[in-house]
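Before going further, learn to read the protein records used in this course. A complete example follows; check for yourself that the lines match position by position.
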Amino acid sequence: MNTLNIQILNPNVFSLLHSLESMNLIRIENNRVDYTGDTAFFEDLKSAVEDVRLHKQGKLKLKTAQDLLNEL
């Protein structure tokens, strides 16, 4: 048995995956964490991703890990 992790970009693909599972061709293990109920976490995560994107473009200067540790 081989394991393949995939990222689902379009939720419509689940019907195809469930059809394959019903034919005993694949087994779907849903071990993802659903954060839809925690909107504050999701918004913070989106903000962090945006900060990293801007940093990579050179438009934002982020603190180093050492700076963060020094604040503690």
In short: The chain has a mean pLDDT of 80. Residues 13-30+37-71 form one domain. The longest helix spans residues 39-56.
